[in-house]
Design a protein that fits this description.
About 25% of the residues are buried. It is globular, with a radius of gyration of 20 Å. The two termini are about 35 Å apart. It contains seven helices and eleven strands. The chain has a four-stranded antiparallel β-sheet with strand order 4-5-1-6, with helices on both faces. The protein has a three-stranded parallel β-sheet with strand order 9-10-11, covered by helices on one side. The protein has a two-stranded antiparallel sheet with strand order 2-3. It is of the alpha+beta class. Helix 1 packs antiparallel against helix 3 and helix 6 packs across helix 7. It is about 35% helix and about 25% strand. The model has no long low-confidence stretch (mean pLDDT about 95). The chain folds into two domains: about 140 residues, Transposase IS200-like (Alpha-Beta Plaits, 2-Layer Sandwich), CATH 3.30.70; about 90 residues, no CATH class.
């Protein structure tokens, strides 16, 4: 899914966090070593992962207005923080597409050399997800999130029991039983969905649009889904595949 902020000028000066996902979530870019607890988790790049990292680092040579402030290659996805220092003549998405094209060339070359075994013709899923970092504290939170990716990956891999029902999970100063992707509690942007019981159908529709816009930018929506509006928002987000946290009595 291509997620863009409506009304944003993608030619202007801005800071973006971009996420790209390998087609089919194939772990072609490397492996995570370490358990993230007793031993530090570290990403070991494959030949393809190294080519992806080099292609990313070379972007400022082609786009002088662009700086790469941080990035993390993971086995099946990539996070990168870009700073567009001044207005650019092309849509920012064209820079991302140029990077993806370079990665596809590397994929074909490494397949011909027998260093990558996959049936993929295109490395990345269509589109990309960008998060515009224009609020205080967002940049540092995203840097922390990117840096912590290998540890979270290792813990998920080595502790599958974390995704069964867990008791005494602390969140917001209270203890809960939790089931599902508990790591969503540590997401850098949680948004509480609150809708008055008195909202009309038109008002609920507007609230759905407002919250889904935030979900498209990377927010994790949180709600007990009590009012009709809250139920509508969470159902719409669920139907579109966005991450959610449901609170239940």
């Amino acid at each position: 899914m291509t997620r863009r902020r409506i009304g944003h000028d993608y030619h202007g000066r801005c800071i973006y966090m971009v996420t790209l996902v390998v087609n089919g979530r194939q772990p072609l870019l490397g492996t995570i070593k370490g358990d993230g607890e007793k031993t530090p988790a570290k990403m070991l790049l494959s030949d393809l992962g190294d080519a992806v990292s080099q292609a990313l680092s070379s972007l400022p040579r082609f786009y002088p207005a662009l700086q790469i402030w941080n990035h993390q290659v993971m086995p099946d996805h990539l996070h990168a923080i870009f700073f567009v220092q001044e207005p650019i003549p092309m849509h920012f998405g064209k820079i991302v597409n140029g990077f993806k094209t370079a990665c596809n060339k590397a994929l074909r070359r490494l397949k011909e050399q027998g260093k990558v075994k996959t049936g993929l013709m295109s490395l990345w899923e269509p589109g990309y997800n960008d998060r515009i970092l224009d609020h205080e504290g967002q940049l540092q939170r995203m840097k922390n999130y990117i840096a912590d990716n290998p540890r979270r990956w290792a813990i998920k891999r080595n502790n599958p029991e974390l995704f069964r029902v867990r008791h005494n999970v602390e969140a917001g100063g209270q203890l809960f039983a939790a089931q599902g992707n508990v790591f969503l509690l540590d997401a850098p942007w949680l948004v509480a969905v609150k809708c008055s019981r008195s909202l009309s159908e038109d008002e609920i529709a507007r609230e759905c649009d407002r919250y889904l816009s935030q979900a498209q930018e990377g927010a994790v929506l949180v709600s007990p889904s009590i009012s009709a509006g809250e139920k509508a928002v969470m159902r719409a987000a669920f139907d579109q595949g966005f991450p959610l946290i449901f609170l239940q009595d």
